[in-house]
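haha ok so turns out i had the wrong file open the whole time. this is the CORRECT one, sorry everyone. sequence first:
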Amino acid sequence: MKRFLIVMSVVFALAYAEEKEIQTENKEGKEEQKSSEIIKEQTKDGQKSGQFVFGVMLGAHTLKVDNEYYKDFRDIDGIDNSRLSFGFSQGAKIGYDFIFMPRHRLKLYADYLAGYFGGVKGGSTIQTGALNLDYQFNLTSLVGFFVGANAGISFLNTRELGAQNAFIIGGNAGVSLSLLSWLELEFRLRVMSDTFADRIAPSVDSVGMMVGATRQSVEFGDLMNFSVGLNFRF
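then structure:
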């Protein structure tokens, strides 16, 4: 009986040692497989140079109207009749995002933006086509911040003062949220400096009449747009 107990003890000890060795080997195998998958994924991301992007956007546009008054071709000083108008805007964009590091992107895209102002000089529209270059830093896999520059042409059409176009240049800033691998929600603020020319109004408004003006000029400017958009990546 004593010999039997000794033999059984030795068998259990050997079985326990063998089981521990198998568990250790399995653990090392899983860790090696996980490490291999991580390296494979990193290599895949490193080889990915970028993505094509198509987006649509809705938002608000601003347009400043500055009125100047004259009497017999002399400027009437001390009269401030400027107004910042707000209008509805919509647009679309297409471009390419260059991924040069996991958290860093260069976003090159062209976009079209249209703003509508019902109360500006009988109703006005402004349409802008621009080329943009933004730098984006992804703080996490969900949130990214970007800043950049834009340049293009704006077409302004007012019912009372006719149409004109101007060169624009400005800056972009915003936040992007990666909802899915192919879908992004974007919040963008754009500020634009324009070269619209002054226009002579066909008649003097009520403010000009009060100061005895015989002529009135109108200047447009201070373009700014805030939009919320969806970007589709492929």
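The two ends are 76 Å apart (CA to CA).
again sry for the mixup
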